[in-house]
Specification:
Distance between the termini: 73 Å
Largest sheet: 5 strands, parallel
Oligomer: single chain
Strand content: 15-25%
Helix content: 40-55%
Shape: elongated
Structural class: alpha+beta
Radius of gyration: 33 Å
Amino acid sequence: MLKFEADVARVICDVEGRLLVAVSGGADSTALLHSLCRLKRDCVVAHCNFHLRGAESDRDQSFVEELCRQHGVSLNLIDFDVEEYCRNHKVSIEMACRELRYEWFATLLEKHECSRIVVAHNSDDNIETMLLNLFRGTGIDGLIGMKIDNGKILRPLLQFTRKDIEEYLNDEGIGYVVDSSNLQSDYRRNYIRNVLLPELETRWSGIRKTLRRSQINLCGVETFYKSKLSELLAEADDNFLSYDIIRKSPDKATLLYEYFKNHGINDSIIKEMSVALVTDEFVGKRWLLTDCEVVAERDGFHVLKNHESQSLTIDYTCEKLEMNDELAHSIRGNKDQTMIYLPKSIENYRFRHPQIGDRISPLGMRGSSLVSDILKDAKLTTKQRRDYWLLEEISTGEIIWLPCLKRSRHSLVDFSASEVYKVVYN
């Protein structure tokens, strides 16, 4: 077995099952498929024709068809209208191609019961990714770039340079196609590949090895970083991040970023959240992220998921009682806000969640008060206020009761009546 194939074998030895291999016909993917077949791995090939280079795109497809025929490998083909996708989704050609192919790969992965999508990225690709991320502004993950195996996508050639791969193909006498668009420097990645890195190599001859070594070193840094992060966030959950946890962090902004990064947080929101840590003026402040809303409360940041519905059930009991002097005395002296006595059966009322502008006319007071002010004064969190239940009289629309807080002066018990209804909020 050749050293190249032996190194590939070491990477994939722990990956079981059938592999879905993305093959474009270029040097990298051709070498990848050839080595996997030499290693007698069960493979299924996927090839995308984006029709961006005219006859050259069709040439690549024909080449891959012949390559699969020679190796006796099943081939899946698909045609994409990239320009239409760009118009409909307002993305670049590069992003469109990526989204289209990986969405298709995901369907093939399930259809053919494959354990991994296998792609042919090499170490030079990873250095380019590192620089692209660096120029955009990135953290440790972006500098490390792509990983050999993330549990879904496998990159066995990430340990090899482009030169290593071409030497393997030449030694084996294996042909491949060349994508002419890679020779142009219009795209950012191609500019880094064709212009920037060659220019850097004139001053630092070992720049590629140095950058690769930096990526390996950063993998160790990431391990320590994530270990400390897990320690800090051990007491947090998906719905609440307390100020106490944040204050323990050596860098509060970094902790906020890591906790909210999957929700689409940005630098300006992180700065505002950092201010909320040291002042009560931000209590009630809301930030709308990609899939949730974050609210600053006195104890920390509460996360309200967009799909999260309000509480759908309320636990209460209702009892019909015969009016008498003893009961009338109990009703007059009742101070327990967890229960209410009503003149009509519960069917005449309904429990619902608060709405904007709701008001109640509290017993023993003149005028009315906003329900939102009462709930806020009770120091309920935003989620608690949203999930709160109040009692409304159906016929009048009057809010009769805020359980545990206030009783309205409307819909009071008539002591001359023969019966009364006792409702207890559990």
